[in-house]
Structures are given as structure tokens and as C-alpha cells.
Amino acid sequence: MSRSPGDGDELVQVRRTGGLAGIRQARTVALAELAETDATQWRSLLADDGLHALAATPPGRAVPDAFTYHVACPPEGDEVTLPEHGIPDPVRELFRRTLGE
After folding, report:
1. Which of 3, 7, 15, 98 has the most CB atoms in a 10 Å sphere around its CB?
2. What superkingdom heads the lineage (predicted)?
3. How many CB atoms lie within 10 A of CB 5?
């Protein structure tokens, strides 16, 4: 999912599933539409394969009814799945802001 910083119309898809109520949220957004700090954080995660590194890290104990985040970058469609409890707080907050929470 590696991209060069500053690629043109970069898109990111974020989907959150699970939780007690099983509510699904999803959003596809161009990084240029986000606040500059969020766009910069996304570009860093994508350029450094930070998402793949997070996905490769064991999340620890299982948490029933936890949220799971799915992140993809069209058009490649390479998707990374991350359990919420295995994501550092700054990245989790970025995902939430991107989803519009």
C-alpha cells in the first residue's frame, strides 16, 4: 500500500465494522478534502507502509464486540484489516475523524 508523498488525487477508504450493535460506517475520501494535518498523517502512514506494519503486529488479547477497521487505497484496492484495540490512539483518532465522527 506504499505511495509516494504528494501523489495527486490520493483516495483512502475507511470502513469500521463490529461493535455491540454491529453498526457499519464507511467513507471514501480524497486526502485533499481532509484537514492538512490529517492528510499529512495519512500520507505518512501510506508512504511508509505503516498500515501494513500495524496489521502485522499481534493485537494482544481478543476483545469481544470490538470494532475492526478496514483501510484501502483505490484504485489498487489493497486492504488492511486492523482490530481497534491493536491501533495506537493517534491512528485510531485519525480513522474516526476520517469517518466523520
Report:
1. 98
2. Bacteria
3. 11
Residue 20 lies in a domain: yes
Residue 77 DSSP symbol: -
The per-residue pLDDT for range 23-58, each reduced to its tens digit, is 899 999 999 999 999 999 999 988 877 888 888 877
Q: CA-CA distances (angstroms) from residue 9 to 3, 13, 30, 68, 71?
A: 12, 13, 6, 26, 17
pLDDT, tens digit (0-9, with 9 covering 90-100), for 56-80: 877 666 777 788 999 998 877 678 9
Domain extent at residue 88:
11-99
Largest separation between any pair of C-alpha atoms in the chain: 39
